[in-house]
Amino acid sequence: MTRRSGQDRRRRETGMTIGMSRRLLFGGAGAALAAPAFVPAWAQAFPTRSLRMIVPFVPGGGADATARIVADPMGAELGQPVVVENRGGAGGTIGTQAVAQAPADGYTLLYGTPGPLITNPHLMSLPYDAEKDFAPVSLLVRGAYVMAVHRDVPARNVAELIALARANPGSVSYASAGVGAGSHLAGELLAMRADVRLAHVPYRGTGQAIQDVAAGRVTMSIDSYGPMQPLLQAGNMRAIAVTSAERMPELPDVPTIGETIPGFEVGVINYLCVRSGTPEPIIRRLNQAVVRVLNDPEVKERLRLAGSSAPAPSTPEELGAMLRRESNTWGEVIRRAGIRAG
Length: 342
Prior knowledge:
Helix content is 44%, strand content 18%.
């Protein structure tokens, strides 16, 4: 093969896969599932410099902790460092915008949570298009939230908390990682299903939110178990329920909210995306690295010890379909609750 013909072939491959990556996030996933996970030789040479993994929240939360556990071994798989960069604010919008404005070359990754691409589009006017500006790489972890109160709150379970909120409308507050974050929407769904009024107190990340619960400035939080773990162990917070359909193995004595409110369930997903237009072979290369990392027993153990949700690697197409379903589900909750940012 001549040098020119090789370049032409690469351009054809790249052009085809750029169009494909733009369809993966919220459309066209079914057709893409049939595509083989083939990574051409030129994409195998990627990366040739360090990558950025942007976490759109301040340090100290569950997303930040999981990102740092995944980043180092991912860098080892790729042969270049993966540097975690925290850009918190506006419910994840600031950091997400940075990825939307980055070159479509695979060197800038978005560490996503429910807010940036699932709930925020239903809440506010965004400086990016959640459906068109990103291409999925892989699901990272999938789990549930823990509902925990300050140690002096008299409620020992969900029923008692509901009774407290009904006796004192608006006096029971809950901290979240920001407007539109999963921790915000979980609280809104609880208020809707229990028919109570709760006061929402948004922060710029989980770390700040749960610290104020531990300090007694906010009644409770419904958020990731990992960052709560040391505060629960220290006795500053008390877990009274989990949002999963079944009890969490890590907290077998803590009931589900669904045991009090039948059918209540809130799942949590964290994932990686890149800028749309990134060549599909590079997305596949990144996906392969993530899958290997999350299947590594040592990484699994580190995630478990950190209180993270269970690792759940996926194909880009599977993640795209999941984001679409989650967006539809939470969009309906947001509309029914009349939630607006700002």
